[in-house]
Amino acid sequence: MELLGKNLADLKNSRPNQVFSLATGLGASCQCLEALRELHRAGFIHRDVKPANFACGKNERIRIIYMLDFGISKRLSPASAEEMSRGGRFKGSLQGTIRYASIACHQCQELGPRDDCESWLYMMVDLISPMGESIM
């Protein structure tokens, strides 16, 4: 039994130029950002934000996007959650998918919620910009 539809990477790759329209890409990206915000509020960071880790629902929920794959996510302790809200970070090694990883992740620096947000930004650009083209 399938509970969810296709992930955003598969949907994007099935499109003519392998990109979403601006309206579709921004709408999907907004739902992904909302899911990240809720994850951070719950005290976790995802650490692998990418189109393949977000999928559409099925049937009447086809326009709802769900976050997937919490395999390398990390729980923030109450003390570190407070520190993160002030801009702190976890010490770490390269985590997630290189294409969407934050600069801090590439430098094997500490990771925090803002790194998920940076990865989300790279993901959003990937969803709406044809490969190799500038969005400017």
From TrEMBL:
Pfam families: Pkinase. It comes from the Eukaryota. PROSITE patterns: PROKAR_LIPOPROTEIN (PS51257), PROTEIN_KINASE_DOM (PS50011). GO terms for molecular function: ATP binding; protein kinase activity. SUPFAM superfamilies: Protein kinase-like (PK-like). Residues 1-136 form the Protein kinase domain. InterPro entries: CK1_Ser-Thr_kinase (IPR050235), Kinase-like_dom_sf (IPR011009), Prot_kinase_dom (IPR000719). PANTHER family: CASEIN KINASE-RELATED. This is Protein kinase domain-containing protein. It comes from Ancylostoma caninum. The lineage of its organism: Eukaryota, Metazoa, Ecdysozoa, Nematoda, Chromadorea.
